[in-house]
Every structure is written in C-alpha cells, then in structure tokens.
Protein 1
Amino acid sequence: MKQGLIGGVVLAVVVALFSIVFAAAGMHKNPALGWVFPVIATASTIGVVIWTLRKTRDEGKRYGGQLLVGIVLAFVAAVRLFVNSYLFTTMIFPNYLDEVRVVQEEQIATQPNLNQQQIDMQRKALDVVLTPKAQAGLGAIMTVISTGLVTLIAAIFVRKKD
C-alpha cells in the first residue's frame, strides 16, 4: 500500500507541475496544442505506474497485489489532482477557464455545418464543463480510469512470476 500512496503523490505532483507549465506557456490558448496535455498526462501515468509496480514486484507482489497497489495509486492521485485542479483554476490561474472558453467558442463558430441552434447548444454545454468543479471532477475521473487501465495492462508484465 505504501508504494501506491507514494506513486499517487508522485503522479499528482508531476501532472500538477505540467499543468502549471502548460498554462504559463499559454498552450491552452492554442487549439493546435490541445493534444499536448493529455499525451503528457498519459505518459506520466504510464511511467509512474510502471515505476511503482516495479518496486512492488521487487517486494514480491503478484498480479492481484499489483492491481490493489494500482487502485490505491489511482485514487490517491485522483483526490490530489481534484484539489490541485480546483486551486489551479480558482487561485493560480483564475482566468484559465475563461481563456479556454474563448478558444472553444471560436472553434464552435468556425464549424461549417452547424446552424445557430447547434452553436447555441454547444455554448451551453461549455457552461456545464468549463467550471472549476467540473474540470477537477473530470480530471479525477480520467485519472482513475487511465491509471486503472494502465495498471491492468502493466501488471501483466511487471509482477513477480513463479
């Protein structure tokens, strides 16, 4: 369990630090760079999970034990990232979501096949998802899902074998 706690904290710190770099560099204002954050977060997840599972393998954990460590890692990281994300969008970069909204609305407006009603519906959807709590919640959910999937796969290869 200890390794899961450590791994969860490490993952949360890495993703939180990259979030700050991403925002400080203004990458969130460039739609062409929208892929960067998910790729870095996913690569970080894979790296931290494998690093953690290697440590627990050396302690003698088999597949089931690895899965339990991965679950602990996922939930520790998710809780910390929820708090980090909320603080990030309310205190550290309070204009972040407004800036993202501008970019998203520009993209919506340039869609050639949308009528005004569809544009209005998509703008209303932005009202729901572009809030600090919604972003923090979505980040936490995606952390649990991605970390869980990576653990399920990685534990097949990185475990104590007989």
Protein 2
Amino acid sequence: MLKLGKLTDYATVLLAAMAAEPERLHAALELSGRTSVAAPTVAKLLKQLQKGGLVQSARGAHGGYRLNQT
C-alpha cells in the first residue's frame, strides 16, 4: 500500500483539475474553489510545482498556471 502525505494528495488533486483543461491558465483562487483546497495551500503547492517543472506560471492581470507541456 502506498501512503501519500496530505500535501502530495492535494498536489495530485490540483494537477488533475488542471489536466481537465491543459491549455487554459488557471488562477490559484479558481483552483481553490474547484478543488476545495484552502487558497494558501494552493498557492504554496503551485509554487512548489512550478519549481519542480510540472507547471508553468504567467504573471500579470490575466496570468495563472498551466501544466508544463515538455
């Protein structure tokens, strides 16, 4: 049996939500609402996922995160 930590589980949920629309930019607050994961946790995880190369970030008023397509 594989045991995952709570943050790993939340990260998997976020990635799955983003995979439903991989070309679209997703805002952290929007992902928080869709997944019922607290907004500060979503922001923390998205930063870690970006550092790990799993997601790309775009800054600005219409920015957000999308899955890395490499």
Protein 3
Amino acid sequence: MNKFAIFVFSIVLSCSSFVSADDDRKLGPAIEKAYASADRVFVGTVMRLPDDSSQVIFHVTESLKGGKVAKVPLSCQSIDGGCESGLFDSGSQYLVYATKSDEANIYNIHPDRALTKLRLFADLDLQLLRDMYHPFRENDDSAWWFDE
C-alpha cells in the first residue's frame, strides 16, 4: 500500500508540472502583449490605501518600462470594489502593468489584470520581462544605435 501511495503521488506531481509548463508557454506572449500596450511596468510596494479606495500609491523599487520614478499613483476606479477589493494589500510588493489615465500623473491597472500580481509569484514574469529584447530601453545608453 505504501508503494502504491508513492506511485500515485509521483504521477500527480508529474501531471502538475505538465500543466504549469503549458501555462508558462502561454505566459510569454501575454507578457509581451501587455508590455507593448502598457505605459509603465514596475515592481513596487503599496505605500498606502486611501480611505475612499479611489487610488493606491506605489513606491517603485524597479522600473521595467516608463522611466525611473519614485512613486506611481494607480487609480482603482476600474476595479470592482476599489483598492480595498483585496487586489492590493498595504506594505506588499507587486509587479504592476499600468496605462495612463485621463487624469494627469495617475495610472490605471492594465486591462489584463492577471499579469499584475504579488512579487512573490512573479519570478517567471520578471525573468521573461528582463530577457525580452528592448532595442531602445529607457535609461540604458548601451542600447542606442549611435554608441561606439
């Protein structure tokens, strides 16, 4: 009986790895599409959730698109339940894809909300983002064509 349990457990583990491998193959194109349509992509920590749940302020620790900034205000008006819906927790770190809002200096969460996630679960996403070819990365002088 013990050998049978080990056998079944090993099959379950191998099947779950096939599922995640398939999901990984779908993740690359989704990340490329979201990166292309986003105005900002960054890793940031939620600084505060305001009382009216209209927006959240992120302290940016790594900017992947949109230039280096210290803070990014993100509107939660397009999120059901606002900022307090459970999507963001104060003090937690996230990988965020954001698009410009109609309001000056405020961003909206990218329409593909599944890609905005806790940093804890974004290792593969970040690896794919860092490995993507960006011929004219902002703040990276080595990528410019006129460099010697």
Protein 4
Amino acid sequence: AMQAHPQVAGVQQQGCAALVNVCSGADGAGRARKQRAADAGAIEAVVAAMQAHPQVEDVQKMGCWALRNVCSGTDAAARARRRRALTARVPEAATAALQAHPDDAAVQRQGQRLRDLLV
C-alpha cells in the first residue's frame, strides 16, 4: 500500500503505524517479523514516506518509530538492518523530522530514539 500510494499521507502514516506494531517484540517471532519487513523493503519505504511528507507530523513520528522497531535488536541480523538503514539515509530522515517539527514532543522523542539507536 505504501508503494502503491506514495503521495497519500494517510496511507503512509497508517503503513508506518502497521510496521510499528508488526515489528515489535524481541522474541524469535518478533525478530523474524523485523527481518521479513526489512527484506520486503520496509526501511526504504518508510524513508520514502518521510521524504514525501516532511510537514506531516504523524508520518514523521510513525516513520521514526517504525524504523526504530525494524532496526532494533542485538543479533547480527539487527546489526545488518542498522547498516542498511545507514545506507538508506535513515539518520538524515530522522534529523529532517526533528528539524521540521521542533515543537512536536512525539516527533522529537521518536526521532531522537531512532538516532540514538543508529549511533
């Protein structure tokens, strides 16, 4: 849906929200869901959504949160997802979100958590 409707902010926000939920959990099933999402292009899709809708706070907030969930973990696969996120310019997307929405506490919280994960 995110790839089919890149200019519809509501679809992008809901797609990111779905990824937040699907990519939660640190157990084996959660790790597998994170990897399947990354393999399906979730990292790049979320960055594209954030770039397409820089002024939509909910897209920025949910995008940062989704990326943090997809990239979290301590195993080798999680480290590989974080490397992929760097290649996909996730830190730049998080920084842009923080700069575009300095007064939105949720964007600031999720954006900073994402940046902290990637350092």
